[in-house]
Specification:
19 strands; binds aspartic acid; disordered N terminus; about 450 residues; six-stranded antiparallel β-sheet; single chain; binds magnesium ion; 12 helices; Carbamate kinase; 2 domains; alpha/beta; about 25% strand; VC0802-like; binds adenosine-5'-diphosphate; globular
Length: about 450
């Protein structure tokens, strides 16, 4: 197949995924600290807080140099300094009520570009022959919409050449270019995706996501102080946790890692403690019923009543929301009464205004009896674990814990490995602690 050894093609169906399973094989189970391979190629991703000040940037440079001094090649993927991306978004909003997404991408990509230049400078001060590499130079080709680009392909030819020259690379996270050369960003937290994709394309021996916590915990340690760091977690659990609010990893990056077999470790950029290995599940993992608990704030619920009980109605309503690019989360359709059905769904509260506008248009066509009720100020709590597949009574334990804590449940949704509920946003932290304690997640599993 042309380009087989050089191109990472992420399009499903192109049959190139097999060559990307190398990473999984090169990671002996239980591996936590240092690669056993004497001269490994290591991808290290440093998030915004890890490069949040000049001192932190010097710390990152020292860490990269240490890894180099141990004989390894390093490709560091770097995020914008903390606060920079948010600051740029604010700036654009203050300037214009309808900033174009194309220009938002051009603006936001500057955050990472600033960070890679600074990290490369700090490395050069330490005597490391470092080169900054933008998304385009890294060969990251994207598709999809502005501000939500998806990686279509990655041609690592330039990165390989620079590595072969003995250089240490500092790659901009969160950005790529379309085949027409337009700048795309990869969605919030998108540097995680860059790191996983670069590790896959370079067939790196090790991929480390270095952040401001020691690993993936049973719940955000800022919410549950006694949450426990997990030694390992399966892709599916990490994916469910990430997509239900655990922002320690961007959910799309986990999906990507699973698809291409990239085993990675989440660990701290500030100490040498072993982190959490994210990998394919193995039979022992099923012994644990709940691996972790996630929370997601700022949710809103919309309920539509008076929908004629006829085929196609739900499809029309959901299509209108899809066309307005509103991501729905939970969806509940109630059994119809007197010829009318009722549907409720949740979304991020910032989408509520656009959702109402889109719904008014479609409901005017559907029925004069239809009306919309909205409720903001709700949050979602999810309990996740692959052990749910083989253990019963999980929902009962969770609901009882919430009831005992006096917390009312709004909507419920379940998947094979997740139970999620909405609660009043003011009670979400109490809810997380109650469920965490009910499943004794602070204790090592027996
Ligand atoms: P970075 O800037 O390195 O990308 P993020 O802020 O995106 O870091 O992610 C790290 C943060 O994720 C932590 O500071 C923590 O508050 C939060 N977090 C949420 N859920 C979890 C969890 N289950 N385990 C660890 N951290 C979590
Ligand atoms: N700087 C981007 C963000 O804040 C990407 C990242 O940090 O991963 O979302
Ligand atoms: Mg992040």
């Amino acid at each position: 197949m042309p380009g087989r050894s050089r191109h990472l093609s992420i399009n499903p169906g192109l049959g190139e995924t097999d060559l990307l399973h190398v990473l999984a094989k090169s990671w002996p189970r239980g591996f936590t600290l240092r690669p056993r391979i004497p001269m490994a190629l290591i991808v290290q991703k440093y998030g915004g807080t890890s490069v949040g000040s000049l001192d932190r940037i010097r710390n990152v440079a020292a860490r990269i140099r240490r890894t180099r001094d141990e004989g390894h090649q390093v490709v560091a993927v770097v995020s914008a300094m903390s606060g920079i991306t948010d600051g740029l978004i604010r700036l654009a909003k203050d300037l214009s009520a309808n900033a174009s997404e194309r220009e938002m991408d051009v603006l936001l990509a500057t955050g990472e570009q600033q960070a890679i230049a600074l990290v490369a400078m700090a490395l050069r001060d330490l005597g490391v022959d470092a080169a900054s590499v933008t998304g385009r130079q890294a060969g990251i080709v994207t598709t999809g919409s502005h501000t939500r680009g998806r990686i279509l392909a990655l041609d690592p030819a330039l990165m390989r050449r620079l590595l072969d020259e003995g250089r240490t690379l500092v790659v901009a996270g969160f950005q790529g270019v379309t085949s027409e050369g337009m700048i795309h960003t990869l969605g919030r937290g998108g540097s995680d995706l860059t790191a996983i994709a670069v590790a896959a394309a370079l067939k790196a021996d090790v991929c480390q996501i270095l952040t401001d916590v020691d690993g993936v915990y049973t719940c955000d340690p800022r919410v549950v102080g006694h949450a426990r760091k997990l030694p390992e977690i399966s892709y599916d659990e990490m994916l469910e946790m990430a997509s239900s609010g655990s922002k320690v990893m961007q959910s799309r990056s986990v999906e990507f890692a699973k698809k291409f077999g990239v085993v990675f470790e989440v660990r701290s950029s500030l100490n040498d403690n072993p982190g959490t290995i994210v990998t394919e599940e193995h039979p022992n993992m099923e012994n644990v019923v709940i691996r972790g608990v996630s929370i997601e704030r700022s949710q809103a619920r919309v309920t539509i009543t008076g929908i004629p009980d006829e085929p196609g109605m739900t499809g029309r309503i959901l299509s209108a929301l899809g066309e307005a690019e509103i991501n729905l989360d939970m969806i509940v359709l109630n059994i119809a009464h007197d010829g009318f059905a009722r549907i409720s769904f949740t979304m991020h509260s910032s989408d509520l205004g656009r959702a109402q506008a889109a719904l008014k248009r479609v409901l005017a066509d559907i029925s004069a009896a239809a009306s919309i009720e909205t409720e903001a100020g709700i949050a979602k709590l999810s309990a996740v674990g692959i052990g749910m597949r083989s253990h019963s009574g999980v929902a009962a334990t969770m609901f009882q814990a919430l009831g005992d804590a006096g917390i009312n449940i709004g909507m419920i949704s379940t998947s094979e490995i997740k139970i999620a509920v909405t609660v009043d946003e003011t009670r979400i932290e109490d809810a997380a602690r109650a469920v965490h304690d009910a499943f004794r997640l602070d204790r090592e599993p027996a």
